[in-house]
Write a structure and sequence with these properties.
With about 280 residues, the chain is of the alpha+beta class. It has one domain: q2cbj1_9rhob like domain (Jelly Rolls, Sandwich), CATH 2.60.120.620. The chain has eight helices and twelve strands. It has helices spanning about 30-40, 50-65, 90-100, 105-110, 110-120, 150, 185-190, 210-215; strands at about 5, 5-10, 15-20, 40-45, 125-130, 135, 160-165, 175-180, 220-225, 230-235, 240, 255-260. The strands form three sheets. Strands 4, 5, 6, 7, 10 and 12 form a six-stranded antiparallel sheet that branches. A four-stranded mixed sheet has the order 3-9-8-11, with no helix packed on it. Helix 2 runs antiparallel to helix 4. It is globular, with a radius of gyration of 18 Å.
C-alpha cells in the first residue's frame, strides 16, 4: 500500500496516475513551453548522462559512509541505511554544506545536459541558483504538499525546479508526486502562493494530508517509477509532495532539487552567491 505522511494513497485511476513523458518534444522550445503551460511539469526519461548522475550519487554516499549512515554489509552504491549516524560528533552545518557542494553533484546540476535543457526550454541563456537542495530521505520519511514559490519567490516567478533522482527511485522508495492541474488553482496562487516562509514565519507546507488536499483541489496525484537519467521539471505553482519511503531493504532515497530561470530576469538573492544566505533572514 502506498502512503504519504502516513495517509493511504488511493491508486484508483480516477484519483491517481502517472506522469506524461515529453521526450517526443524535447528538442522544441515552443512545444516544451506549451507543455509546461498545459501540465505544469515536463517529464523526460533518460536524458541525463547516467555516468554523471551516478558520479554524484557515489560522491554523496561516500560522505554518508564517513558518518556511519550506510550499512557496511551491503555495497555502498545500494544506499542501505545503517540506522545509525555520527553526525552529532561533527560540525553538522559544515557537513550538510559539504553534502550539497561536492564537485560531482555540482557538475550534474550546473553543467552539461541540465543547463542545455533549460536554455532550450526557456529560449535564451539560463542561470541556476548556486544553492542546491540535496535530499537524503530515510525510511518512513516524506515531504508534505507545497508550492516552491513560498520558499524562493523574491525574484522572477518564471522559475523552475529540476527534480533529479540520484539513482532509481521507485514508488516504494518515496517517489515525488505532482497534483494534476494544481498550477491552474488561481485562488491558491493568490493566497498560500503569495506567502513567504521567511517574511511570514511559516513552515511552507500547505498540507500534511495529501489525500485531503486532492479531495479539496481536485485532479489526480501523478508519479512515476523514476530511474537514473530522468529529469522532472515543474513550475513554482505546481503542488507536489512525496510518497513515504517504505523501502523493504531500508534504502535511502537520494534526489536533488535545483532551480533555473532566465539569466536576464531578477533572482532571489537568498539562493545565489559563493555562500548563499538561504533561510533565516527577513
Amino acid at each position: 500500500m502506498l502512503t504519504s505522511l502516513g495517509h493511504s494513497i488511493d491508486t484508483s485511476p480516477e484519483v491517481f496516475g502517472f506522469l506524461r513523458t515529453s521526450n517526443d518534444i524535447a528538442d522544441s522550445h515552443d512545444e516544451l513551453e506549451q507543455r509546461m503551460k498545459d501540465d505544469g511539469y515536463i517529464f523526460l526519461r533518460n536524458v541525463l548522462d547516467h555516468t554523471v548522475v551516478m558520479n554524484a550519487r557515489r560522491e554523496v554516499l561516500q560522505k554518508l559512509e564517513t558518518v556511519g549512515e550506510l550499512n557496511p554489509d551491503f555495497p555502498m552504491m545500494e544506499a542501505i541505511a545503517s540506522g545509525e549516524s555520527r553526525r552529532k560528533e561533527i560540525d553538522v552545518k559544515a557537513f550538510l554544506k559539504d553534502l550539497r557542494t561536492g564537485d560531482a553533484y555540482r557538475t550534474l546540476c550546473h553543467e552539461g545536459q541540465v543547463m542545455d535543457f533549460f536554455d532550450r526550454f526557456l529560449g535564451a541563456p539560463s542561470r541556476a541558483f548556486d544553492y542546491l537542495w540535496l535530499r537524503t530521505v530515510g525510511q518512513g520519511q516524506a515531504t508534505g504538499c507545497h508550492y516552491d514559490v513560498v520558499y524562493m519567490g523574491r525574484g522572477t516567478k518564471d522559475l523552475y525546479t529540476a527534480w533529479i533522482p540520484l539513482g532509481d527511485v521507485g514508488l516504494m522508495d518515496g517517489a515525488l508526486m505532482i497534483l494534476e492541474n494544481s498550477h491552474r488553482l488561481e485562488d491558491l496562487k493568490h493566497t498560500y502562493g503569495a506567502s513567504d516562509v521567511d517574511r511570514d514565519k511559516i513552515d511552507g507546507w500547505l498540507s500534511r494530508n495529501p489525500p485531503e488536499a486532492r479531495n479539496k483541489y481536485g485532479g489526480r496525484w501523478l508519479t512515476a517509477e523514476f530511474h537514473a537519467g530522468d529529469l522532472l521539471c515543474f513550475s513554482m505553482y505546481t503542488l507536489h509532495c512525496s510518497l513515504d519511503n517504505q523501502s523493504p531493504v531500508n534504502r535511502i532515497r537520494l534526489s536533488s532539487d535545483s532551480r533555473y530561470q532566465l539569466a536576464s530576469e531578477p533572482v532571489d538573492e537568498r539562493w545565489v552567491g559563493v555562500d548563499p544566505v538561504a533561510h533565516g533572514g527577513n
